């Protein structure tokens, strides 16, 4: 994702999955503790839904929407840590594993190809 984007500008944007299905609306943005770079977005998944955490890298801002390169079902099944609180390193690691992201090098993520 663009690293020069103001994280506050993401709040309120609609989020869509890799197939163009609407996931929900960005509620909050979480910054990396060490770098201050936006790292996670909490996306409200419905009127009475919950917030699902999605990685901002490798997501993209396209026009007025956030495109998340994962299936909607995977996003909705992400661990629920609640919003409004700090994500611990252990919680972040659980999220990286959930999305199959390689965290071996900071800022160097690998998204596995979709399985057929």
How many helix segments?
A: 2
> What's the CATH H-level superfamily name?
Photosynthetic Reaction Center, subunit H, domain 2
Question: Which residue ranges are poorly predicted, with pLDDT under 50 across at least 5 consecutive positions?
Answer: 105-111
How is the CATH topology named? Photosynthetic Reaction Center, Chain H, domain 2
What would the principal axes of the Cα set say about the shape? globular
User: Roughly what is the average pLDDT, rounded to an integer?
Assistant: 86
Topology as a string of helices (H) and strands (E): EEEEEEHH
Summarize the main sheet. Answer: 6 strands, mixed
Number of strands: 6
Strand order of the largest sheet: 4-3-2-1-6-5
Helix content: 10-25%
Distance between the termini: 26 Å
What's the alpha carbon Rg, rounded to whole Å?
A: 13 Å
How many separate domains?
1
Given the helix and strand composition, which structural class is it? Answer: alpha+beta
CATH class: Alpha Beta
Produce a short descriptive summary:
One of its GO terms (cellular component) is plasma membrane light-harvesting complex. The chain has two helices and six strands.
Present the secondary structure layout.
Layout: E1 14-16, E2 22-31, E3 38-44, E4 51-55, E5 60-62, E6 65-67, H1 72-76, H2 89-98
Parallel strand pairs: 1-6
Antiparallel strand pairs: 1-2, 2-3, 3-4, 5-6
Domain PRC-barrel: 8-61
Pfam family, one: PRC
Protein name: Photosystem reaction center subunit H
């Amino acid at each position: 994702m663009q690293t020069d984007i103001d994280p506050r500008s993401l709040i309120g944007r609609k989020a869509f999955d890799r197939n163009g299905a609407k996931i929900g609306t960005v509620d909050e943005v979480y910054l990396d503790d060490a770098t201050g770079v936006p790292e996670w977005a909490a996306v409200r998944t419905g009127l009475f839904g919950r917030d699902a955490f999605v990685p901002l890298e490798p997501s993209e801002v396209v026009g007025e929407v956030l495109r998340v390169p994962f299936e909607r079902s995977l996003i909705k099944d992400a661990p629920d840590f609640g919003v409004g609180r700090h994500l611990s390193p252990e919680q972040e690691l659980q999220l990286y594993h959930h999305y199959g992201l390689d965290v071996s090098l900071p800022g160097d993520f690998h998204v596995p190809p979709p399985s057929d």
